[in-house]
Design goal:
The protein is built from 14 helices and 15 strands. The N and C termini lie far apart (58 Å). By secondary structure, the chain is an alpha/beta fold.
Length: 420
């Protein structure tokens, strides 16, 4: 594989030139939303300049807009490994999941069962709890093992039953980075006759997705988590989509897309996927003439290799800082996680740690990141953890700068918190 040139990558991202108190800003906040390359910015701007019109008009700008919308569906289909007519766009994964849950719920009967997990973002839990209340369904929770924040297949096989109709789980945990055995979970569900609904939001920037290969029925992601604009995308397997009732305006041509779309965002979506494909042509040892799907898979392989190496540097450095605890899988299980580290710093509140890092120009998140159930189970609510999210545009120098700042914080006296 061609050497990954992170400096060349960084030149594509204008925001990485920003400074704070004379030093470059460090973006370890990717799990909450990544920065975007120049081509995405240009695509959105170009849409407004050349194609800004509503759908279905008998004039040039509308035809251009419709071509972009169609191309964006094809691009996400290539990213996910499916067909374009199986892709639905919406504002984000959460909104799409609430929307399609209405159709799924209408296909279920009282007493049917849904399985959710204690590892997931609430966007793949709360829609199913709400649907269950409305439809008199039974919800069962697949509990994670808290020592390493993983889901065990044996626990699923004990939980699933002939009444199970849906298993909702994440491809990867947005809070602690665990990558789940998606194909194996889907196989267990399928043999029971249940559908699978996968939250791939956190996985999409870090690993190659292939919904068809792993055999899931629904897969949702958000483009702003993989270097694009605020757009959500949902794959629904064609045979499942055809079996579901729809809730839409009668003449709308698409089964699940309601109202006028974020067309300029779709232009940026197309550019974001093409950016990932370009990584494959540059660093993945595939020709630029290869299919976009082939280039995407190669690009994500290059990203994965670089990020895992960078994460190893971070994890080893964290282990050397007294008072810092990594939550979840350790370095020995690096292949089972994304390059996202959730940490606790002894004697220091997560928000105080994040604030001190932010004051030094290092962007990290603190809290529970809507993985509320997991943080509660870990006994870390309500303050949560500090989340460090590496992406392929981060560098070793940035990791070292973070580690030095964390070492200073861990060795310092905690700030006094005022009480009422």
């Amino acid at each position: 594989m061609t050497q990954f040139d992170v400096e060349a990558v960084r030149r594509r991202f204008p925001a990485l030139q920003l400074t704070h108190d004379g030093r470059p800003l460090v973006f370890f906040d990717g799990p909450g939303g990544t920065q975007v390359p120049d081509s995405v910015i240009e695509a959105v701007t170009r849409y407004y300049r050349e194609s800004n019109a509503n759908h279905g008009g008998a004039f040039e700008t509308s035809r251009r807009s419709d071509e972009i919308v169609e191309a964006a569906h094809e691009a996400i289909a290539d990213l996910v490994g499916v067909d374009a007519d199986e892709i639905t766009f919406g504002p984000n994964m959460t909104t799409l999941t609430f929307h399609v849950s209405r159709s799924i719920g209408a296909a279920l009967r009282p007493g049917d069962e849904i399985i959710v997990t204690g590892l997931d973002h609430q966007a793949n839990v709360d829609p199913w709890l709400a649907m269950a209340r409305d439809r008199d369904l039974v919800v069962r929770t697949w509990e994670p093992h808290l020592d390493d924040c993983t889901l065990r297949l044996i626990d699923l096989t004990a939980l699933i039953s002939p009444r199970t109709r849906l298993v909702a789980f994440g491809w990867a945990s947005n809070a602690v980075g665990t990558i789940n055995p998606v194909a194996e979970i889907a196989d267990i569900a399928r043999r029971t006759g249940a559908w699978t609904y996968v939250d791939a939001v956190h996985a999409a920037p870090h690993v190659a997705l292939d919904a068809r290969a792993v055999g899931v029925d629904f897969l949702a992601c958000s483009v702003y988590k993989f270097f694009g604009p605020h757009v959500g995308a949902l794959y629904v397997r064609r045979e499942v989509a055809d079996s579901l009732p729809t809730y839409k305006v009668r003449p709308a041509p698409h089964r699940f897309e309601t109202g006028t779309g974020n067309f300029e965002g779709y232009a940026g979506t197309l550019a974001a996927v093409d950016y990932l494909a370009d990584l494959g042509a540059r660093f993945g040892d595939v020709p630029a003439s290869a299919s976009r799907r082939t280039r995407i898979v190669a690009g994500m392989a290059a990203v994965r290799a670089y990020e895992i190496e960078l994460y190893g540097r971070l994890a080893r450095g964290l282990a050397r800082i007294g008072g810092v605890r990594l939550v979840g899988l350790g370095l020995a299980d690096v292949e089972r996680r994304t390059p996202t580290a959730a940490i606790a710093v002894e004697g220091h509140q997560p928000h105080d740690v994040a604030t001190r890092l932010g004051d030094e120009g290092i962007n990290v998140w603190d809290g529970d990141f809507y993985a509320t159930g997991l943080i509660e189970r870990l006994g870390l609510a309500p303050d949560g953890v500090v989340r460090i999210g590496l992406t392929h545009y981060n560098t070793e120098a940035e990791v070292d700068r973070l580690l030095a700042a964390l070492a200073d914080i861990a060795a310092s006296t905690p700030a006094l918190t005022a009480t009422a």
